[in-house]
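pinging the channel bc i need a second pair of eyes. not urgent but kinda urgent?? the chain im working w is below, pasted from the shared doc
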Amino acid sequence: MARSGLIYHTRMEVRVFPNSRRPGVGLKPRREGQRPLLPQHARHCPVLEAGSALGFLVYPPLEPNESFHLEFQGDGRYQFAYFLSTPRGKWETIFSLTVVLPVGSIGMIKEEVVFTSPDPPISREEAARVARTFIVPEDLGTPPGALALRGATNFQTPPGWDTVYTPVFNMIERPVAPMLVVRVETDWYAHETEFRYVLQPGEGISAAHSMPIGQVFFVPREEITLRDCTEEELEAIDRSAEKFSREKAAIKLTTSYGMQYSPHYLRQSRSPKA
């Protein structure tokens, strides 16, 4: 809405609701443009940080003293291990759950719980229930090596908007497991957040309280039409590009380690737009 030459922006509201199996546990979703393991000069790349900050990071439904590790062992066999930290900060394995998928997808899923102590604090049934709080056994192996991690937070979007579930953007350190990106109509479907990674035999994925397991962003469902620019529009684009290049070249800063960069794009992106 415009008034007296000013533009007023309205905020889109996305409602959140907790993991149904463990409500209230886990960090809240948040925006974060920094990726500490990227090279230092990436800190001065505003378009890279804007890409990293797209949407919200999502965390697992874990307490600070909990973690888990899920490994794909090949031939339809997965092993889930659940850990607790001691008062001295040492991590101890409480139990492991081995899931074996039926050959040819015909038959029952086999689950075997193994405790590491002779006097376990929970039953085998409770251990299996704990594992299902963090993973979705029914989604294992589709395709081979696939797994689904549950998030601590679910999302309900306004009418006409979808939620897209992705891996954490710009996490380039190796090895990085690929993930199946999904888009869900969360304005009417009460989807429980899942992130579907695909592992090779011998690979595993770990989760901790402060470690995001994926990222979400929200997109409108409206149709998009592409058309060619007119000659007048192309000329205006060329003039805009030339002006930006001149102004960028006129502003140079030097970092503490000697690299030059221009803050012009960052300043322009943060200025009011007409």
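so The helical segments are 46-52, 124-134, 231-250, 264-270. and The CA atoms of residues 94 and 117 lie 8 Å apart. — does that match what u expected or am i reading it wrong
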